Amino acid sequence: MHKEVPVSSSNASLPTFANSWKADLTSGFLVFLIALPLCLGIAAASKFPPIAGVMTAVVGGIIATLFSNSELTIKGPAAGMIAIVAGAMLDPAWLGEAAGPTDTRVYQFVLAVGVVSGVIQILLGLFRAGILTEFFPMAPVHGLLASIGLIIISKQSYLMFGISAPKDPPLESLLQIGGAVAHNADRNATIIGLLSLAILFSYPWLKKKISPLKYLPAQLMVLIIAIPLGQAFHLGPEKLVSLPAKLQEAIVLPNFSHLLTPVSLKWLILFCLVGSLESLLSAKAIDILDPWKRKTNMNRDLLGVGMANTLSAAIGGMPMISEILRSSANIGNGGRTRLANLFHGIFLFVAIVALGSVVRMIPMAALGAMLVFAGFRLASPKEFVHMWHIGKEQFFVFVLTVACIFPHGELLLVGVGMVAELLINLVNGAPLRSLFKPSVAVSNSGTGATLEAHDALTFANWIPLKRRTEQLGDVPNVTLDLSDVRLVDHTTMDKLLQTQREFANSGRKLEIIGLEHHRTFGHTPSSGRKRSAV
């Protein structure tokens, strides 16, 4: 349930640990109710032991809280990382043979990748490299997330029907599911899985019709129904969540012997690149929703996530990020400071220690339904429609990224979308000389500053432009003149609008002028613009 909070730009009214711990305790508990089944399901889908997902969130809740200043983000395993982690666990190149997730050696090799990835994130934070995530264009990033959503659906749909997902590429897995269900579906698991999925999709409508439901997260309602059904159907242990008898048995140490092999380096790049990008984008999105308009130090947040990832992988956990769904729920539940992240981690730890017998009764089909729902949210048809409205050129890059990644699950193919974005910018008039370095003249007056841009502003030269605006300091009024710019791409327009909001939140003003002679590629404020011939 959303709770109204006072909004003020005065630092004196900002929440503190002392005056907010009760609200954070309540929010942390409600987020824990959402996080528990999702952490178990994400870990299982990633081919990690289910308890590893909970361990990851516990470490994220405690360690990231100490180092990051991101007040409202919840750290933990995320659906957006499933395809990467599962890909690493199932990669036969580790041992030169078809090794599965039951092979502890592969598990330990992947943990070593996680440790080193965390260390790199720490270094990136210390060397203030968080801004590098600003380099990536928006359309391929959205395409990457949509591809991950489709990969999740193609694999986790099997779990809803009580079937083990095949190791085939995502497209083949999706095409084969009909035959697999017809011949191998478990009737009882199917009932639980489909009912769980129906609850998740219909929950917004159900909450309007049944008012008490507004106090219960959808995931908790799924468990309330699925657990008794699982017991009534006498589901076997293989259809239920598996937890070790003792918590210390969940600790697995990494093996660094394969660290310098090509397969290890491949997954290291993906763990670090996609994990850092997703985490920082989520933190930035949550900053926009923060009622107090606090701004996360992205370098410090990257440091905190890196510290937590390093420790998590060192004891058998999986990669974590700032998770958007749980973070949004934290805001809706009235979370005020990062203590909510800490409390959610503590509640998860207590649950595993004290409620292990209940957790072991959770049907895997219900977790599969939650993950299919999460995959649908990432690859929602609304996302495709939104990209179409932004502009046909962005829709092309978005669909191209999805088309390259989804059939094979090779997430490194996100680079195809970036190359396509560069080529489109060149075709639309971006001079080669300004592709990576913007041409901007700065002039100051008594009341403010003016930035006069020339040539083109694209995702590839956004970072230098952003730094030019930051170098102005606390100038109250800044004007950005784009009248002599041939092209402003979608990513830059989107970031300029974000910068306008940041200026407004700090009591300053950024005025963008000179676009009256530019035609837009789409129908949204963030659509790219190209100067018309005059």
Notes on the structure:
With 534 residues, the chain is of the alpha/beta class. It contains 19 helices and eight strands. The longest helix is centred in the first third of the chain and has 29 residues, at 17-45. Helix 15 packs antiparallel against helix 16 (392-405). The strands form two sheets. Strands 3, 4, 5, 6, 7 and 8 form a six-stranded mixed β-sheet that branches. A two-stranded antiparallel sheet has the order 1-2.
Give a short overview:
Helices cover 57% and strands 8% of the residues. The chain is α/β, with parallel strands linked by helices and 534 residues long.
The arrangement of helices and strands along the chain is: HHEHHHHHHHHEHHHHHHHEEHEHEEE
**Coarse morphology:** globular
Number of E strands = 8
* Binned strand content: 5-15%
Structural class: alpha/beta
Number of H- or I-type helical stretches? 19
Radius of gyration: 24 Å
Taking the sheet with the most strands, its summary is: 6 strands, mixed
Mean pLDDT: 91
Q: Helix coverage percent of residues?
A: 55-70%
Distance between the termini: 53 Å
Low-confidence stretches: 1-12
